[in-house]
């Protein structure tokens, strides 16, 4: 894990180091989620943008899948789902 130091300005703004901004593709207007964990650590996460969701969802199969009473599917009837389940 790489550690960086960030500075809070006198206006209460957080200055995120350039290497972090570049790695996370953060620029002006990017939304971040701020959480405080049980040890009072601040956790910043980039809020996914529409383009992030499009990339994520692009590889999820879109087919009708029938499940039996036990929740199993037939790989022959749902080949895209089966491939996705096996290979990710």
From TrEMBL:
It comes from the Bacteria. Keywords: DNA-binding. It comes from Lentilactobacillus buchneri subsp. silagei CD034. Coiled coil: none annotated. One of its GO terms (molecular function) is DNA binding. This is Toxin-antitoxin system, antitoxin component, AbrB family. Residues 3-49 form the SpoVT-AbrB domain. Residues 66-88 are annotated as: Disordered.
């Amino acid at each position: 894990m790489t550690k960086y130091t960030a500075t809070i300005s006198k206006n209460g703004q957080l200055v995120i180091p350039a290497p972090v901004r570049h790695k996370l593709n953060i620029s002006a207007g990017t939304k971040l989620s701020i959480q405080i964990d049980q040890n009072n650590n601040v956790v910043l996460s980039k809020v996914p943008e529409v383009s992030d969701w499009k990339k994520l969802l692009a590889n999820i199969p879109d087919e009708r899948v029938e499940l039996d009473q036990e929740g199993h599917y037939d790989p022959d009837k749902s080949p895209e789902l089966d491939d996705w389940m096996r290979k990710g």
